[in-house]
Specification:
Helices cover 16% and strands 33% of the residues. The protein has helices spanning 2-28, 119-124, and strands at 47-52, 68-70, 77-78, 87-90, 96-99, 104-109, 126-128, 150-153, 157-160, 164-169, 174-186, 191-202. It has a 6-stranded antiparallel β-sheet. It has a 4-stranded antiparallel β-sheet with strand order 3-2-4-5, with no helix packed on it. A two-stranded antiparallel ribbon has the order 8-9. It has 2 helices and 12 strands, in the order αββββββαββββββ. The protein is globular, with a radius of gyration of 28 Å. The chain is of the alpha+beta class.
Length: 203
Amino acid sequence: MKNSIKNISKAVFALALFTLVFTSCKKENDTTGPLSLKGAKASVSSVADTIVGRWGNPRSGGAAFGTVYANVITGAQDTVGSIAHQLLFSSHNNSTISPASGYTLSYLNTTKALSAIDASDVASATTVSSLGIATTSNAANTSLTANGWLTYSTGGTVAAVQNLVVFVSDGSTTYALKFSSAVGEGTSTHNRGVYYFDRGTVL
Protein backbone atom coordinates (compact mmCIF):
# COMPACT_ATOMS: atom_id res chain seq x y z
CA MET A 1 0.00 0.00 0.00
CA LYS A 2 2.84 2.31 0.89
CA ASN A 3 4.48 1.60 -2.44
CA SER A 4 1.23 2.46 -4.24
CA ILE A 5 0.97 5.77 -2.38
CA LYS A 6 4.62 6.55 -3.15
CA ASN A 7 4.11 5.73 -6.81
CA ILE A 8 0.96 7.88 -6.98
CA SER A 9 2.76 10.76 -5.24
CA LYS A 10 5.66 10.50 -7.67
CA ALA A 11 3.26 10.47 -10.61
CA VAL A 12 1.37 13.52 -9.29
CA PHE A 13 4.64 15.36 -8.67
CA ALA A 14 5.92 14.52 -12.16
CA LEU A 15 2.64 15.65 -13.72
CA ALA A 16 2.72 18.94 -11.79
CA LEU A 17 6.32 19.53 -12.84
CA PHE A 18 5.48 18.81 -16.51
CA THR A 19 2.50 21.19 -16.36
CA LEU A 20 4.68 23.94 -14.86
CA VAL A 21 7.38 23.55 -17.53
CA PHE A 22 4.83 23.39 -20.36
CA THR A 23 3.04 26.52 -19.12
CA SER A 24 6.33 28.41 -18.82
CA CYS A 25 7.36 27.43 -22.33
CA LYS A 26 3.98 28.47 -23.68
CA LYS A 27 4.30 31.91 -22.06
CA GLU A 28 7.79 32.37 -23.46
CA ASN A 29 6.58 31.52 -26.96
CA ASP A 30 3.37 33.53 -26.74
CA THR A 31 3.25 36.08 -29.59
CA THR A 32 -0.05 37.75 -28.78
CA GLY A 33 1.60 40.66 -26.91
CA PRO A 34 4.00 43.33 -28.12
CA LEU A 35 6.25 40.68 -29.65
CA SER A 36 3.72 40.31 -32.44
CA LEU A 37 4.85 43.77 -33.61
CA LYS A 38 8.46 42.67 -33.89
CA GLY A 39 9.80 43.68 -37.28
CA ALA A 40 6.89 46.02 -38.00
CA LYS A 41 7.94 49.40 -39.42
CA ALA A 42 7.12 52.54 -37.52
CA SER A 43 5.44 55.29 -39.49
CA VAL A 44 4.37 58.91 -39.33
CA SER A 45 0.89 59.70 -38.05
CA SER A 46 0.34 63.01 -39.81
CA VAL A 47 -1.68 66.13 -39.13
CA ALA A 48 -2.64 68.74 -41.74
CA ASP A 49 -1.26 72.23 -41.14
CA THR A 50 -0.72 75.62 -42.78
CA ILE A 51 2.04 78.22 -42.69
CA VAL A 52 0.64 81.72 -43.19
CA GLY A 53 3.42 83.97 -44.46
CA ARG A 54 3.90 87.66 -43.78
CA TRP A 55 2.88 90.43 -46.17
CA GLY A 56 5.54 92.14 -48.22
CA ASN A 57 6.45 93.75 -51.52
CA PRO A 58 8.58 91.40 -53.65
CA ARG A 59 9.57 94.29 -55.94
CA SER A 60 11.25 96.16 -53.08
CA GLY A 61 13.54 93.31 -52.13
CA GLY A 62 11.17 91.55 -49.76
CA ALA A 63 12.55 93.17 -46.60
CA ALA A 64 9.04 93.48 -45.18
CA PHE A 65 8.42 89.73 -45.25
CA GLY A 66 10.37 88.99 -42.07
CA THR A 67 10.23 85.52 -40.48
CA VAL A 68 7.55 83.03 -39.46
CA TYR A 69 8.57 80.74 -36.58
CA ALA A 70 6.90 77.34 -36.71
CA ASN A 71 6.42 74.63 -34.12
CA VAL A 72 6.08 71.37 -36.07
CA ILE A 73 4.93 69.51 -32.95
CA THR A 74 1.93 71.64 -31.99
CA GLY A 75 1.33 73.58 -35.20
CA ALA A 76 1.79 76.93 -33.45
CA GLN A 77 3.47 79.81 -35.28
CA ASP A 78 4.29 83.45 -34.71
CA THR A 79 6.33 86.27 -36.22
CA VAL A 80 8.57 87.15 -33.27
CA GLY A 81 9.97 83.78 -32.15
CA SER A 82 8.47 83.86 -28.67
CA ILE A 83 7.06 80.34 -29.05
CA ALA A 84 9.04 77.09 -28.96
CA HIS A 85 9.89 76.42 -32.59
CA GLN A 86 11.90 74.07 -34.79
CA LEU A 87 11.69 75.82 -38.17
CA LEU A 88 12.00 79.34 -39.52
CA PHE A 89 10.34 80.50 -42.76
CA SER A 90 12.16 83.62 -43.89
CA SER A 91 13.41 85.65 -46.86
CA HIS A 92 11.37 86.36 -50.01
CA ASN A 93 7.72 85.39 -49.41
CA ASN A 94 8.91 83.38 -46.38
CA SER A 95 10.04 80.76 -48.88
CA THR A 96 13.35 79.78 -47.23
CA ILE A 97 13.16 77.12 -44.53
CA SER A 98 15.91 77.01 -41.89
CA PRO A 99 16.27 74.92 -38.72
CA ALA A 100 16.11 76.56 -35.32
CA SER A 101 19.18 76.46 -33.08
CA GLY A 102 19.84 72.89 -31.94
CA TYR A 103 18.10 71.31 -34.95
CA THR A 104 19.24 70.00 -38.32
CA LEU A 105 17.35 70.17 -41.60
CA SER A 106 17.31 67.59 -44.39
CA TYR A 107 15.15 66.51 -47.33
CA LEU A 108 14.44 63.38 -49.35
CA ASN A 109 13.01 62.96 -52.84
CA THR A 110 10.65 59.99 -52.57
CA THR A 111 7.30 58.75 -53.84
CA LYS A 112 6.49 57.23 -50.44
CA ALA A 113 3.48 58.57 -48.61
CA LEU A 114 4.27 60.50 -45.43
CA SER A 115 2.58 57.78 -43.39
CA ALA A 116 5.11 55.24 -44.71
CA ILE A 117 8.23 57.27 -43.88
CA ASP A 118 10.54 55.61 -41.35
CA ALA A 119 14.03 55.94 -39.85
CA SER A 120 15.73 54.49 -42.94
CA ASP A 121 14.35 57.38 -44.99
CA VAL A 122 15.72 59.89 -42.51
CA ALA A 123 19.15 58.25 -42.80
CA SER A 124 18.99 58.60 -46.61
CA ALA A 125 18.07 62.29 -46.56
CA THR A 126 20.37 65.14 -47.68
CA THR A 127 21.32 67.55 -44.88
CA VAL A 128 21.20 71.27 -45.73
CA SER A 129 21.54 74.54 -43.86
CA SER A 130 18.38 75.85 -45.53
CA LEU A 131 15.90 74.83 -48.20
CA GLY A 132 14.12 77.19 -50.56
CA ILE A 133 12.95 77.60 -54.14
CA ALA A 134 13.96 74.70 -56.39
CA THR A 135 16.08 75.36 -59.47
CA THR A 136 13.52 73.49 -61.58
CA SER A 137 10.02 74.67 -62.41
CA ASN A 138 8.74 71.08 -62.44
CA ALA A 139 6.69 71.01 -59.25
CA ALA A 140 5.55 67.43 -59.96
CA ASN A 141 9.16 66.31 -59.36
CA THR A 142 8.64 63.14 -61.38
CA SER A 143 12.40 62.76 -61.81
CA LEU A 144 12.91 62.87 -58.01
CA THR A 145 15.76 65.38 -58.34
CA ALA A 146 14.29 68.48 -56.68
CA ASN A 147 16.64 70.60 -54.58
CA GLY A 148 13.97 72.82 -53.04
CA TRP A 149 10.47 72.58 -51.60
CA LEU A 150 8.84 75.31 -53.70
CA THR A 151 8.82 76.39 -57.36
CA TYR A 152 8.37 79.93 -58.64
CA SER A 153 7.42 80.98 -62.15
CA THR A 154 7.60 84.44 -63.69
CA GLY A 155 4.42 86.27 -62.87
CA GLY A 156 4.34 85.14 -59.26
CA THR A 157 3.02 81.60 -59.64
CA VAL A 158 4.19 79.34 -56.81
CA ALA A 159 3.71 75.60 -56.32
CA ALA A 160 4.77 73.12 -53.65
CA VAL A 161 7.21 70.48 -54.87
CA GLN A 162 5.70 67.00 -54.79
CA ASN A 163 7.44 63.72 -53.92
CA LEU A 164 9.59 65.47 -51.35
CA VAL A 165 9.75 65.10 -47.56
CA VAL A 166 11.46 67.61 -45.27
CA PHE A 167 12.95 66.49 -41.93
CA VAL A 168 13.90 68.53 -38.89
CA SER A 169 15.65 66.79 -36.00
CA ASP A 170 17.22 67.55 -32.64
CA GLY A 171 19.28 64.36 -32.78
CA SER A 172 16.85 62.22 -30.80
CA THR A 173 13.45 63.02 -32.33
CA THR A 174 12.80 63.67 -36.01
CA TYR A 175 9.78 65.46 -37.45
CA ALA A 176 8.67 65.11 -41.06
CA LEU A 177 6.81 67.53 -43.32
CA LYS A 178 5.35 67.03 -46.76
CA PHE A 179 4.01 70.09 -48.57
CA SER A 180 0.83 69.64 -50.58
CA SER A 181 0.24 73.09 -52.06
CA ALA A 182 1.30 76.73 -52.03
CA VAL A 183 -0.74 79.85 -52.71
CA GLY A 184 0.34 83.44 -53.33
CA GLU A 185 -2.19 85.87 -51.88
CA GLY A 186 -2.50 89.57 -52.72
CA THR A 187 -1.12 91.63 -55.58
CA SER A 188 2.20 91.84 -57.37
CA THR A 189 3.38 94.56 -54.99
CA HIS A 190 1.76 93.41 -51.75
CA ASN A 191 1.49 89.69 -51.21
CA ARG A 192 2.26 86.73 -48.99
CA GLY A 193 2.69 82.99 -49.33
CA VAL A 194 0.36 80.48 -47.70
CA TYR A 195 1.75 76.96 -47.56
CA TYR A 196 -0.19 73.76 -46.86
CA PHE A 197 1.52 70.64 -45.56
CA ASP A 198 1.21 67.52 -43.43
CA ARG A 199 3.48 67.04 -40.43
CA GLY A 200 4.23 64.31 -37.93
CA THR A 201 6.85 62.56 -35.83
CA VAL A 202 8.96 59.78 -37.29
CA LEU A 203 8.48 56.98 -34.74
